[in-house]
Amino acid sequence: MSMDALRKAISENMGAVNVLLVDDQSFVRKIVKSVFQDVDNIRFIDAADGSEALNTLQSLSVDAVFLDINMRPTNGLEALKAIRTGQDGLRQDMPVIMLTGVSDQAAVRAAVELDSNAFILKPATPSTLLDRLTRVLSKRQPMKSAKEYARVQLPTGLDEDAIVAPRLDPKSASAPTEPAPIAGSTPGTVVVKVGIQMLRRNDRLVDDITTKNGQLMVIAGTEVDDAMLDRLTDLKDMVAAKDIDVEREPDR
Amino acid sequence: MMHQDPRIDFVWLTAMVGRNPDTVAEMLEEFAGSASRDAAALRAARTARNADDIQYFAHRIKGASKLIGAVVCGEIAEALEEKAMREDILCDDPGVEHLLTAIDATLGFIREANIESELKGLD
User: Is pLDDT above 80 for A148?
Assistant: First the structure.
């Protein structure tokens, strides 16, 4: 869809929308807002870090959040976890779009486990910003319990995430030139080798999905629901270039 | 050594903010202010030998540069950030000076840029 069409779709099909834009660089907030300057029904509210975002969410009505990951003093993952655990009465299913850079690969696993609704790989293009906002406002996503989200481990110190976050052995985790073995072939289960674009709802991952630098992104065994398909599509440029094995339910 | 071309990619920038010369000038001015502050913080981090801060400010400069279309500046910042993430970066790493030089060149270009002429050049 063209940008004008996306802008028109937002203007015509949605009521007034309050979007919380969280980034610790005022310049970045300003340029993101400029993308939406022709969309009359979107009102932006600024926050300069995760902590300010949480305070805003408690005091103002917000429909969706653009949330940067690497911020000081409170980063985006801490804020996302607070939202998903319903901290201080926050709306647990708040649609959240993570703004992430290729250097945030260690943080992506936690954001996926915290059911971030969407990802935008920076630098964001106008059409991506518009597309993701439209998507998260139009699709509700099932949530897990607050207790499950509370168990999600966050990388300690995003500046150092490449050092302290779980890092897989690149030899076993990501071998772009050497296809991973197909496993889990049992009667009644179809095992196929596909790229992300061919994953289907209810597929179950046989292998971990890793980022290009070997960080674990989605763990083997995860069922690929609609929301996960969307996330993986958002992050496709970050995923290690190898085929992904899935167990596929036979067509009924 | 990467070629330090300070130019702004006006095709990218106008795709982000539109072609109103006042808006383009305002965004470039905002970027210049942000990049100047981050460059000062990067210098301070180098003086204080704080590798975490070097990585953090390289990350900020990368993000802002790529968003505004300061492509080369963004690439140099990205290279420095990635190096800092891969290994214990030395605070006197030449990549820091390389980035500071690129920022200065970009800011100089922005100060001198004739926005209207740059926008006409896109036609």
Answer: yes
Interface predicted TM-score (ipTM) of this complex, two decimals: 0.86
User: d(Cα A229, Cα A247) in Å, to the nearest integer?
Assistant: 15
Nearest CA distance, B8 vs chain A (angstrom): 15
Sheet with A223-224, edge to edge strand ranges: A190-194, A244-248, A203-205, A223-224
Angle, CA of A36, A37 and A43, to the nearest 5°: 70
Interface contact A34-B23, CB threshold 8 A: yes
Q: Give the sign of the dihedral formed by CA A78, CA A82, CA A83, CA A84.
A: positive
Question: Looking at residue A105, what is its pLDDT?
Answer: 76
Higher pLDDT, residue B19 or A5:
B19
Cβ pairs A/B, distance under 8 A: 70
Q: Read off the pLDDT of each residue in B34-63 and give the average, rounded to a whole number.
A: 93
> Of A26, A27, A159, which is closest to B56 when you measure between CB atoms?
A159
Mean local confidence (pLDDT), B25-41: 96
Does the structural domain B20-120 have CATH classification 3.10.20.80?
A: no
Residues belonging to chain B with any Cβ–Cβ distance to chain A shorter than 8 Å: 15-18, 23, 27, 30-31, 33-34, 52, 55-56, 59-60, 62-64, 66-68, 74, 78, 81-82, 85-86
Pairing of strands A64-68, A96-100: parallel
Lowest-confidence range among A57-61, A79-83, B12-16, B36-40?
B12-16
CA distance A192 to chain B (A): 34
Ordered by where they begin, the domains of chain A are 3-161 (3.40.50.2300), 167-248 (no CATH)
Q: How confident is the model at residue A192 (pLDDT cuts 50, 70, 90)?
A: very low
Question: CB distance B16–A122 less than 8 Å?
Answer: no
